[in-house]
Design a protein that fits this description.
Protein name: CO or xanthine dehydrogenase, Mo-binding subunit
CATH architecture of the largest domain: 2-Layer Sandwich
CATH class of the largest domain: Alpha Beta
Largest sheet: 7 strands, mixed
Number of helices: 21
Organism: Polynucleobacter kasalickyi
Strand content: 15-25%
CATH topology of the largest domain: Aldehyde Oxidoreductase, domain 4
Number of domains: 4
Distance between the termini: 55 Å
Number of strands: 28
Pfam families: MoCoBD_1, MoCoBD_2
GO molecular function, one term: oxidoreductase activity
Length: 763
């Protein structure tokens, strides 16, 4: 295998590419390119224009996307792009998401790829559709193409506007029967092109102007259908039953203990136990009433959460790498850096700590599956319905062509959450009982048993000379594996029930290192992963959470940048500007600093127990650039932190829908504050004890910032970047830096919860 450095920008989320190498990491792109054949197509062919676009007899344009919407209003952006290329009214474009029956596998929702990757084939297909339609109109109107123009879905003769024909008249409810050039990729990198070239940005009339979301009313008035609402005929309701101690197995099940509940039945395969009943309440009652004797096992989490960072420090690494996140293996050599540190006039060093965090979806996992003899129908709110289809086909041992997954809206997402768990369980139970089954996880399961963001320790050192110039820079992240289970559920071993029924977990390793353009002499950075506490079916199995492993690493880097700046008596903004190489990073940083009037001291705002300070942090990823600045108020008596003001400057290239970008950033602000101030998985030696909103608190309405300023740097000359994660990543670092500015105390572990703050301030 050739060792190369690869970034997330080069990440191909392709089922044909995801082959585990003997080293335990995924192979490099060079190796993939040498061995890659045309991947198997399940469902519609990506090379058919009709896969992407349909036009009805009333002129409605339907776009079929293999993505899904994590609540960002992606359908509006896609409709804008299609309407722009086709020259039709925005109101006449409808977008379907994630239905495997009618869409190609574009990878679902991941890596902020909805616009930066998922929109590209839609733009290309729309441009090609217009070219074909204008060509058809040329024949119908007996007019050269050069004399034709399109307005609002009508093609007319510029010299004789009365001579016109509509798209609906040309092709309504008919097929284009046109082939596109498909790049033979499955997943995020899927693209198709036609003979037509999309419009230049200079001709855009719709893209770049704010457009409102379409789903707000249906959500508010509860007319929107979620997975939990699906009720096929003859439906059974089910609940899984989790062991009281992680890793224990059922020895004896007393089925008579639920005999009084009408129609309740018990299912067991491997260590997975569930009950089914005709009503949801009866399933809940049966799950609580069923008597099970469980095996005795050694405590799976020695020392509980109090010992987690000692465990990480002492654990022998399972793998080490210097690749930022995804494919390949990059070697590194810390020796020159260590040598430079030894000869430095001063060495600044610090360790930063990140806990396990839960996806904590507002509504836990729900799946409805109907397994018939020759067809399997799945209703799911997973981020990756096409991959879930493949995984459930493997789980049931049926051909994937007979399985269809229909994506539904879900209440929370972002990463490899518990969304895949209930559909897998429902599939197993539906096959066993011969009826459609709905599995609804509880709040306790959704927090205690979902895949978690990995806990980690980041160790940093900086050397400086007698002139306070940097001589060396070392960054090491050591934590639980970001790929303990995979970022999609394309195979049963990546799910809880899959592991419980005998599917052995894969072996691949992943963490993260920062990718911002800071340039230091003798700069080295790498990551190490440690063994999981419990290898199979663990409530602390780890996987991708929104901005996977980036919040951990940027918390450390951006706080340490602040520490080194203060130690060398340089303003934190000036220090960053001095060492940043990427102009777009400088632009977002300057925009935040200017908005904050950074040079003005905030100390005069502090009074008594209320201390006020400001902090700033930077992020570069998903082809976008974001800087976050915040002003916080620290109550020294209670330990509560309130973000009085937050400013985010975002450069995501060409902006499609400014209103969508702003809404996405507003959501990231609240989740960022939540993860910065509250979210932490608690566990003892036997189990996860975070089981509800009291034991796993999140931000609430009282945490809304006093003032929010969003600065969008539109770059029409640059490709659109990702928006769903960049504003989130650096919020904990900006908050922690602001707390230092307010109190003079460094808190190097998030969340900065009240008790941790009071302890740090020795109140």
């Amino acid at each position: 295998m050739k060792n190369i450095q690869l970034t997330r920008r080069e990440f191909i989320q392709s089922s044909s590419a995801l082959i585990i190498g003997v080293s335990g990491v995924l192979p490099s792109l060079d190796a993939i390119a040498q061995n890659q054949s045309v991947p198997t197509v399940l469902g519609p062919n990506p090379s058919a224009l009709d896969t992407w676009i349909k036009i009805s007899t009333d002129g409605l344009v339907t776009i079929n996307s293999g993505k899904m919407d994590c609540g960002q209003g992606l359908d509006v952006a896609y409709a804008m792009i299609a309407a722009e290329e086709l020259d039709v009214p925005l109101s006449r474009v409808h977008v379907n998401f994630g239905d495997t029956r009618i869409s190609a596998n574009q990878g679902g929702g991941s890596a902020s790829s909805g616009i930066r990757q998922g929109a590209i084939p839609i733009r290309n297909a729309s441009a090609e559709a217009k070219r074909i339609l204008v060509g058809l109109a040329s024949k119908e109107l007996n007019t050269p193409v050069e004399q034709l123009e399109v307005v609002a879905g009508k093609v007319f003769n510029k010299n004789n506007p009365a001579q016109q024909i509509t798209y609906a008249q040309l092709i309504g409810n008919k097929n284009f029967t046109t082939s596109l050039d498909w790049n033979k990729r499955i997943g995020n990198d899927m693209n198709v092109t036609g003979l037509a070239k999309p419009k230049p940005v200079s001709e855009y009339k719709l893209v770049g102007k704010p457009q409102s979301r379409r789903d707000i009313l249906s959500v508010v008035n509860a007319s929107e259908h979620f997975t939990a609402h699906i009720r096929p005929d003859n439906l059974l309701h089910a609940r899984g039953i989790r062991p009281p101690v992680a890793g224990s197995s059922p020895i004896m099940i007393d089925e008579k203990s639920i005999a009084a509940i009408p129609g309740a039945k018990v299912f067991r395969e491997g260590t997975f136990v569930a009950v089914v009943a005709k009503t949801e309440w009866d399933a809940v009652r049966a799950a609580k009433a069923l008597k099970i004797e469980w095996s005795e096992v050694n405590p799976p989490f020695p020392g509980g959460e109090k010992n987690v960072f000692n465990y990480i420090k002492d654990a022998k690494p399972t793998f080490t790498n210097a690749v930022p996140m995804f494919f390949g293996k990059k070697e590194y050599n810390p020796e020159p850096t260590l040598a430079a540190l030894k000869t430095s006039a001063k060495v600044i060093e610090a360790e930063y700590f990140a806990p396990f965090q839960s996806h904590a979806r507002f509504a836990p996992s729900c799946g409805v599956v109907d397994v018939k003899k020759d067809q399997v129908q799945i209703w799911t709110d997973t981020q990756k319905p096409h991959f879930q289809r493949e995984g459930i086909a493997k789980f049931l041992k049926v051909t994937p062509q007979t399985v269809e997954a229909k994506w539904m809206h879900g209440a929370g997402s972002y990463g490899r959450s518990d969304a895949d768990e209930a559909p897998y369980e429902a599939a197993l139970l539906s096959k066993a009982f011969g009826q459609p089954v709905r599995v609804q996880w509880s709040r306790e399961e959704g927090t205690a048993w979902d895949p978690k963001a990995p806990a980690a320790i980041m160790s940093l050192k900086a050397g400086v000379d007698t002139n306070n110039q940097i001589t060396a820079w070392l960054f090491k992240a050591k934590g639980f594996n970001g790929w303990d289970v995979k970022f999609n559920a394309e195979s049963p071993e990546h799910t809880l029930v899959g592991m419980q029924t005998g599917h052995k977990k894969w072996t691949a390793f992943n963490f993260n290192i920062p990718e911002e353009s800071y340039k230091f002499p003798n700069h080295v950075h790498w990551w190490e992963t440690v063994p999981s506490y419990l290898n199979q079916a663990s409530p602390l199995r780890t996987a991708h959470l929104r901005a996977p492993q980036e919040m951990q690493t940027r918390f450390a880097q951006e706080c340490f940048i602040d520490e080194v700046a203060h130690a060398t008596k340089i303003d934190p903004v000036d220090f960053r500007m001095k060492h940043i190489q990427e102009p777009r990073e400088k632009d977002v940083l300057k925009a935040v600093a200017d908005k904050f009037n950074w040079s003005i001291n905030t100390k005069q705002k502090s009074s008594g127990d209320l201390q006020v300070g400001r902090g700033i942090a930077l992020y570069n990823g998903y082809q976008s650039y974001a800087a976050v600045g915040c002003e916080v108020e620290v109550n020294k008596k209670t330990g509560r932190i309130w973000v009085r003001q937050i400013v985010i400057a975002m450069d995501c290239g060409l902006i499609i829908n400014p209103a969508g970008v702003r809404a996405a950033l507003e959501g990231q602000i609240m989740q960022g504050i939540s993860r910065a101030l509250y979210e932490e998985v608690h566990f003892d030696e036997n189990k996860v004890t975070s089981v509800d909103w009291n034991t796993y608190p999140i931000a609430t309405i009282k945490d809304i910032p006093g003032k929010v300023d969003l600065i969008l740097l539109n770059r029409p000359d640059k490709a659109s970047g990702g928006v769903a994660e960049p504003g989130l990543v650096s919020i904990p670092a900006a908050v922690a830096n602001a707390v230092f500015d307010a109190t003079g105390v460094r808190i190097r572990q998030y969340p900065l919860a009240p008790e941790r703050v009071k302890k740090a301030l020795m109140v």
